[in-house]
Specification:
Blueprint lengths: L2 H11 L5 H20 L4 E3 L3 E8 L2 E4 L6 E4 L2 E8 L1 H9 L10 H6 L4
Antiparallel strand pairs: 1-2, 2-5, 3-4
Length: 112
């Protein structure tokens, strides 16, 4: 799903709101998350997951075309970890076109 599809789906669920207002809210939420990550903060959305920033150390890399050694500088990367409720929903609800175990079998498995 892309952002425009998300806005359209929310607009369909809330016909009393204007689509442009929903788009502004979605953009505002995403901008706020990005700003928090840029400051080095962690963003947690209960039941959904947590966004955080990790730092990759500088290292020696390789140009795949020439095989030449290249230095890769230190960089910050965004990381997302799913929440407990999201993991449950992903493992119990069958996805379209994908085979999933039945909920009874999944319930008998030990928690990760």
């Amino acid at each position: 799903m892309i952002k425009s599809e998300l806005v359209t789906k929310i607009a369909a669920q809330h016909p009393h709101l204007y689509q442009r207002d929903i788009e502004n809210v979605v953009n505002s939420i995403l901008d706020t998350i990005a700003s928090a990550l840029a400051r080095g903060d962690r963003v947690e959305l209960r039941g959904f997951g947590a966004f955080s920033v990790k730092t990759r150390d500088a290292r020696a890399g390789r140009n795949p075309r020439t095989g030449e050694a290249v230095s890769v500088s230190e960089k910050a990367i965004p990381v997302f970890k799913t929440g407990k409720e999201m993991r449950k929903r992903l493992n119990l609800v069958p996805l379209e076109g994908a085979e999933r175990a039945d909920p009874a079998a999944a319930a008998s498995l030990p928690a990760a």
